[in-house]
Amino acid sequence: MKLPYFFFGTLMDQDVLERVLGRAPGPLSTAAVLHGYSRVRVDREPYPALVTAPGHRVAGLLLRDYSAEDDRRIRYFEDFDFAIEQTEVETEAGSETAHFCGAVSNITPMDEPWSYEEWVRTDKERFLRVTDIYMKGYGTLDAEAADRLWLDTVAELFGD
């Protein structure tokens, strides 16, 4: 049985997830909580990261219905700065194991909370454009070229 994905940031948004998957994802209806972490802003990036924070919790959503191709597309979208890890999350039905985008490299988490609601108001439209441009490289760009595309597009649309 494949593990669900726990999304805690931009991939909680249906529009972003649709662009990443290249198809309508269906509802992300299972609310889940990850204990022992905080969701924080990332320096010069429009997405959050998780940092270890005993006593804290992060609310998110689970994606259960995905194909092998969806999995590859999610990993392309996340894998250059995040490692796909496993963790335990809490749902109404109890504890379960899920994938999440954990360990970070090449980014600087800040000591500042990231808010999904604020992101929707201030950054979502530009982020959708970044996602559209970036996902056009899926299946054609190597890791270095994809990373450069992301950085250049974010700098252009969000400023340096």
Automatic annotation (TrEMBL):
Annotated keywords: Transferase
Xref: InterPro entries: AIG2-like, AIG2-like_dom, GGCT-like, GGCT-like_sf
GO molecular-function terms, A-Z: transferase activity
Protein name as catalogued: Putative gamma-glutamylcyclotransferase
Domain Gamma-glutamylcyclotransferase AIG2-like: 5-97
Keyword Transferase: yes
